[in-house]
Amino acid sequence: MSDALIARLRQAVIDAEPDDALALVRELLAADVAPTLILDGGLAKAMLILGEMWKSGEVFLPEVMAAAAVFTICNEEIEPVLLASADHKVGAKVLLATVKGDMHDLGKNMVAAMLKMAGFDVIDLGTDVSSAAIIEAVIRETPAVVGLSALLTTTMPEQRSVINALVAAGLRDSVKVLVGGAPATQEWADAIGADAYGQHAPDAVRAVKELVGVLD
Ligand code: B1M
After folding, report:
1. Do 110 and 191 fall within a single domain?
2. What's the distance, Cα to Cα, between the start and end of the chain in Å?
3. 214 phi and psi, to 5 degrees?
4. How many domains does the structure of the chain reveal?
């Protein structure tokens, strides 16, 4: 039953039908379907399908924007349920940002929610964040990890710029850097001197746990 509901949820997101999508999310949560499954198999997969439809000219920017808004509404409905099952506090801070020039935040928000569920304190600086603003936040918040999301091939180099800025500010040894986002790879992470790469949100959580030494 849940597979059919998740397939309907994907379609409702693709069609940008907020009422239908929200009703389906509520139905799935009421049926005790894991919030992470609803996020991954429903919402994230819908955006992936839509990305392909966009590339092939089947849909255009306004449709993608409308679907992204539905994603956000659904994510906000799921997050409290996700947090209700949160692990005990790890006591480590993670600073998250989508890098300068990049407005994509759905994936970063998923990473944020899953890190909170895993017991981390998350400071989310939002989207289009300059390396100067990230450096200021690192000084102010002293996080254990900085997580940088980039969805565009044109903004990926900003991940390298932030690492260079951390080195220039003498902060590189005091904080670990995690990078992610659809175009990023382990090779990219290694090439720019990041400490870890997360392909999907659960990988990001595993990587952060490893970086702070709490991987079970
Ligand atoms: Co944009 N966009 N977009 N877009 N968009 C892509 C990325 C694109 C691949 C679409 C395509 O061509 N098929 C393409 C990039 C091509 C490229 O760079 N080579 C593209 C483009 C071109 C653009 C614009 C330039 C379009 C334009 O204006 N002409 C423009 C750029 C705006 C800007 O940022 N300056 C633009 C705008 C937009 C919207 C505003 C319409 C919207 C964003 C809404 C929002 O985020 N609030 C949007 C969307 C929705 C997409 C697609 C369709 C979906 C992205 C998404 O949210 N996926 C996307 C197609 C695609 O990715 N295949 C596309 C769902 C999300 C859950 O997955 O973000 O990958 P994702 O996150 C995953 C992992 O990547 C990982 O975990 C997440 C969960 O598993 N992850 C991390 C993410 N961050 C992480 C950080 C980590 C670790 C893991 O550690 C810190």
Report:
1. yes
2. 33
3. -120, 25
4. 2
Nearest CA to ligand 1 atom 66: 107
Q: 44 lies in which domain range? A: 2-83
Has this prediction a pTM greater than 0.85?
Answer: yes
| DSSP one-letter code for 15 | T
121 and 68 belong to one structural domain: no
Residues lining ligand 1, judged by CB closer than 6 Å?
44, 47-48, 50-51, 54-55, 61, 64-65, 68, 101-108, 110-111, 147-149, 151-154, 178-182, 198, 200-201, 204
pLDDT digits (tens, 9 = 90+) for 111-140: 999 999 999 999 999 999 999 999 999 999
Instruction: Return all residues near 65 (Cβ < 8 A) that are at least 6 apart.
Output: none
**How far apart, in whole angstroms, are the C-alpha atoms of residue 68 and residue 115?**
21
Among residues 80, 91, 113, which one has the least CA distance to residue 202?
113
